[in-house]
Write a structure and sequence with these properties.
Blueprint lengths: L1 H9 L1 H11 L9 H12 L3 E7 L5 E7 L5 H14 L7 E4 L3 H5 L6 H4 L3 E7 L5 E8 L7 H45 L3 E5 L5 E4 L1 H7 L3 H4 L13 H11 L8 E3 L11 E7 L5 E7 L1 H15 L9 H18 L5 E8 L2 H8 L1 H18 L5 E4 L4 E7 L3 H17 L2 E3 L2 E3 L3 E7 L7 H17 L5 E3 L5
Parallel strand pairs: 16-17
Antiparallel strand pairs: 1-2, 1-5, 3-4, 4-5, 6-7, 6-10, 8-9, 9-10, 11-13, 11-16, 12-13, 14-15
Helix pairs in contact: 1-2, 2-3, 2-7, 13-14, 14-15
């Protein structure tokens, strides 16, 4: 290497031959480290490095050669050299000997090993400087004009190449940064992202999918039909598969897949086309939100104290029942009962309002316990309740009232060591075919209830309007 250096930098003919050999090897397709290695081999240099600032202002250093050189040594070398030259314009700086003394500390092997050297500015086509190029030799430079001519030709060739390589490598770094960001987004986004190929194999399955569904991608792909894990029903599976591998959906639709533990989820799902023609499935887990909405809807229809339907909900239920009766156009039994707790004011005054509240709850619990599953119970006033009994006529309603009075006597409300037996009055209306007016039904039930209370309470009176 020393002889090679001596031939190239101190002999004009050898310098020309070296440049002629080197030029075809320097292409913008090379990596910067490869290019530096090529320069070292051809020119006989011991050390070559490039220092550039990236877009973030951080120094980037690439080194090649026999002498190890760290970025902090280069930073210190450039700072001290540029400080000395800050008032002078320059493109290249040459050292005939002892450049190692400038670049390294005395303890570094290169301090004694490196002698000749040259530092050049790197300039782009627009004339702006973007970095520095350095060559160091183990021999003293005997013929400076030859090296200067070599460097002029070399830098003419290298400046554009270096600029192209820098742009390409910056683009590669940026691409890697973008890929990394999207990979992090894919893995960490609180959105379900998955994709299945045409063989029904799962090829994308992010962390949110694993958390929500409970399955890992490796587990999914051990099954011949992975979709069966989420859709046990064959017909549903056929519909879902058709949507997943067909055209992208314009809107999100609701899907109810199974978790690994068997629980049913509620997912909003849609499809997004990818450049390679595959489909990315994107979903949002709205299971808890759906439960919360259902709970709110239930609370909006429920009486807070007794747990039965509130006034608005029970009246709506009656209206729907009458409309259904009209559409079916055939006669079958249906009755409406209006209840009122007897002497409820005395209960509140004598036992206190807390016991009064307990009395209302106890009454509803006893009534629900003996009512058929198809019935609907609602609270329409303070101590007034409405019971809808489909499939039952007034005779069945009277039988239910008798059973309720028996239940209230045999299971009285316990208040400390005392028992409170509740009593009630009731009015019954038979719903006949063609009856559509809910207000009229309520009026007739209320009149029958009033008759029960007026004639002594503790009775059930059937409305005579339809008899």
């Amino acid at each position: 290497m020393n002889d090679r250096c001596r031939e190239v930098v101190n002999d004009s003919m050898q310098a020309l031959h070296a440049l002629a050999k080197l030029m075809p090897l320097l292409t913008s397709q090379c990596a910067l480290s490869e290019m530096l290695e090529t320069i070292n081999r051809t020119l006989g240099s011991t050390l070559a490095w490039i220092s550039m600032d990236d877009e973030a202002g951080m120094q980037r250093v690439i080194c090649a050669g026999e002498v190890t050189c760290h970025s902090f040594e280069i930073t210190h070398f450039l700072a001290s050299t540029l400080l000395q030259r800050q008032h002078r314009s320059w493109r290249s700086i040459y050292w005939k000997e002892n450049v190692g003394n400038v670049l390294f500390t005395p303890s570094h092997p290169g301090y004694q090993q490196l002698h000749g050297g040259v530092l050049c500015k790197l300039s782009g086509r627009e004339g702006s400087d973007y970095g520095y190029f350095f060559l160091g030799f183990s021999q003293r430079l005997l013929s400076m004009p030859i090296l200067k001519h070599v460097m002029v030709v070399l830098m003419e060739k290298l400046s554009d190449y270096f600029a192209e390589i820098v742009v390409r490598e910056r683009a590669a770094i940026e691409m890697q940064r973008v890929v990394t960001q999207y990979k992090i987004l894919f893995e960490r986004a609180p959105v379900l992202m998955s994709s299945f190929d045409r063989r029904n194999r799962c090829v994308l399955w992010n962390a949110e999918c694993e958390k929500v569904f409970g399955w890992r991608m490796a587990e999914i792909n051990t099954h011949a039909d992975p979709l069966a894990l989420f859709c046990p029903d064959h017909e549903e599976r056929r519909r879902v598969r058709g949507s997943l591998n067909a055209l992208p959906l314009n809107d999100m639709y609701e899907w109810h897949p199974r978790r690994k533990d068997g629980a049913t989820l509620t997912i909003l799902w849609s499809n997004v086309p990818l450049p390679d023609g595959s489909i990315l499935n994107i979903g949002l887990d709205i299971t808890e939100r759906k439960k919360a909405e259902q709970l709110l809807a239930q609370r909006a229809m429920t009486d807070d104290l007794t747990g039965c339907l509130n006034r608005s909900a029970i009246l709506q239920r009656l209206t729907v029942a009458l409309e259904s009766e009209r559409r079916q156009e055939w006669d079958h039994p249906y009755s409406v009962l209006m209840f009122d707790l007897d002497y409820f004011k005395q209960i509140n005054d004598g036992w206190g309002h807390q016991v009064g509240d307990r009395a209302l709850v106890h009454f509803c619990d006893c009534l629900r316990a003996i009512s058929p599953a198809s019935s609907a119970l609602g609270r329409v006033g303070g101590e007034e309740f409405l019971l809808l009994l489909p499939g039952a006529n007034s005779a069945a309603a009277l039988t239910l009232c008798t059973a309720l009075r028996k239940a209230l006597r045999t299971s009285p409300l316990k208040v400390g060591d005392k028992s409170l037996i509740l009593a009630f009055s009731a009015g019954v209306v038979d719903v006949r075919c063609g009856q559509r007016d809910a207000s009229l039904l309520l009026t007739q039930a209320d009149r029958a209830l009033y008759d029960a209370k007026r004639t002594g309470r503790g009775k059930t009176v059937v409305s005579v309007d339809y008899l």
